[in-house]
Specification:
single chain, 530 residues, alpha/beta, D-Maltodextrin-Binding Protein, domain 2, 6-stranded mixed β-sheet, 22 helices, 42% helix, membrane, SBP, lipoprotein, Lipoprotein LipO
Length: 530
């Protein structure tokens, strides 16, 4: 049994846990190993320091609650403790953002926090500006984060993403290697139904509509096109915009929901709703309801993820041999058009590790965060334990049957996560790790089908606004987002006439969207100038 945290930390965490519900979890990632990832000689964090083990309190995003009751029992963290010569004591992190907010700005903030940017109160940059966490620059310059620093020096693109406009490094994020796939979601369709009905794979929005009508009329689908948690942005993107903030090919920032093409999207979805080919529950249904429709053959075209959706569908197909879902290309308006909205994630994920300002041993904390950017730690994070989850074959790691055909029936992702860091930790994501974690060839195929390498319309990079900008921007966008969420659904369902779209745009402009765009433009201009 692992030691309890100090009473002051436990009391705050217990209070938070009583008030708050747990957050959703997930797992996935990418991979590689290269000379850029070798440890530096001087002050390498992979050489555990001699002497008494420092005790560090840790808040870490938790994905294995179904396997372990305490993060400290996880083999992954135990391996890091041994390698870094530290004693890690874990807080209960299931309370998410609200629980962490109770600790922020107090002496109870843990030494290390590993979380999503959206979970940090105000975001990582806000906590840095507030002084709740320390910049990592001094530790990097002193050789206490040698692996992390060496990698950034070898990869200017990622270095630019990791630091803010003042050149400060707030955290050690999850980093995708240059050759790793960056698109993990898209549409997937019943290929067996296309074959049966003698229909081609749809490439345009109109062809997609024709297919959905055929699925409804000839296959009896009452939810021909379905998705989960309101994830429909691929169809907004078909019109050449994003719904929220985005950057065009001329580096100009836009807010898509006030543009004319957004009305075109609303008209399309309203028409599909009236035609009975768009799942009316898609904006509110949970995962169980979504997958029940797939299993019940009530839908034939869905939007989802390579791992969590397409992978789960493959297991359904083992029961229903006739079902054959395949990745569908991103739909364009006209045959031969380029899909111009980039679906790629940025090469740093929005999760990482920080060191709090109250940490009494930042050098030991740095050792922990740095370990998984070195060769040994990176192998652990990506592939787990040699001889158990992987073997080296011809110089490359190959997953064992413990991962690929787990004797306890665990999925590939879950079996690997018994020993490896999974997708929710600071480390260098290897391409081979990601591809090796996909059990089905169709999942690997989807990465190519959905890829958008030359698309000029980009998502905004990770936020690095000033403290004043963050406060002003959030005060504007909170009300706008609430208004947008309400009225876009009204337009689609038909409870608000589409003729009122100009008034909808005017209302958002009156809520100061132009100022919000101006703030993000200034932020993006500074990003380009780094």
């Amino acid at each position: 049994m692992r030691k309890k945290l100090a009473n002051r930390i436990c009391s705050v965490t217990l209070a938070a846990a009583m008030m708050l519900s747990s957050i959703l979890t997930g797992c996935g990632g990418d991979a590689q190993s290269s000379s850029n990832n070798r440890e530096t000689n001087a002050g390498s964090s992979e050489q555990a320091e001699e002497g008494e083990k420092p005790v560090l309190s840790v808040w870490a995003y938790w994905t294995n609650g179904d396997l372990y009751s305490d993060q400290g029992d996880w083999e992954y963290w135990q391996a890091i403790e041994e390698a870094c010569n530290v004693d890690l004591q874990f807080l209960d992190s299931t309370g998410g953002k609200d629980a962490l907010s109770l600790l922020a700005g107090t002496d109870d903030l843990p030494d290390i926090i590993i979380e999503y940017d959206t979970t940090f109160p105000g975001g990582v940059q806000k906590m840095l500006l507030d002084g709740s966490i320390i910049p990592l620059n001094d530790l990097m310059d002193a050789g206490k984060l040698p692996n992390f620093k060496a990698y950034l020096e070898s990869d200017p693109e990622v270095d630019k993403l990791c630091k803010n406009n003042e050149g400060l490094y707030a955290w050690t994020p999850m980093i995708r290697k240059p050759d790793s796939p960056l698109v993990f979601n898209g549409n997937m369709i019943r290929q067996d139904w296309l074959d049966e009905l003698e229909l081609d794979m749809p490439e345009t929005v109109q062809e997609m509509e024709d297919v959905l009508v055929a699925f409804k009329e000839k296959k009896g689908c009452d939810a021909a096109f379905s998705f989960i948690y309101g994830n429909y942005n691929i169809m907004v993107n078909s019109f050449g915009i994003r719904e929220g903030m985005y950057v065009d090919g001329d580096n100009k920032v836009h807010f898509g929901a006030v543009e004319e093409k957004y009305l075109d999207f609303l008209i399309l979805f309203n028409r599909w709703m009236n035609m009975g080919i768009l799942d009316p529950d898609a904006f509110t249904q949970d995962a169980d309801a979504f997958f029940a429709k797939i299993a019940g053959e009530r839908t034939g075209l869905v939007w989802g993820y390579t791992g969590g959706t397409l992978g789960k569908i493959q297991t359904m197909q083992e029961e229903n041999k006739n079902m054959n879902y395949q990745p569908a290309p991103n739909p364009v308006m006209n045959k031969g058009d380029q899909f111009i909205v980039d679906q790629s994630s940025y090469r740093i994920n929005n999760i990482g590790g920080v060191i709090s300002a109250t940490c009494t041993n930042p050098e030991a904390a740095a050792r922990v965060l740095d370990y998984t950017y070195g060769e040994e730690g990176n192998m652990l994070a990506n592939y787990g334990k040699e001889g158990v989850t992987y073997e080296m074959v011809d110089g490359k790691p190959v997953f064992t049957d413990f991962v690929l055909h787990n004797p306890d029936g665990l999925s590939i992702e879950k079996a690997l996560s018994v020993y490896a860091g999974c997708n929710n930790k600071p480390f260098l994501v290897e391409k081979d790790y990601m591809l090796g974690g996909y059990a089905y060839d169709v999942q690997k195929k989807s990465l190519d089908v959905w890829a958008t390498p030359d698309a000029p319309i980009k998502d905004m990079p990770p936020q690095t606004m000033t403290n004043e900008e963050v406060q002003e921007y959030n005060s504007i966008m909170t009300d706008i987002q609430t208004y947008l969420d309400e009225f876009k659904l009204k337009f689609i369902l038909g409870t608000e006439p589409l003729e009122n779209f100009p008034q909808f745009v005017e209302n958002i402009k009156n809520m100061n969207i132009d100022r919000a765009i101006e703030i993000r433009q200034a932020e993006y201009d500074r990003y380009l100038a780094r």
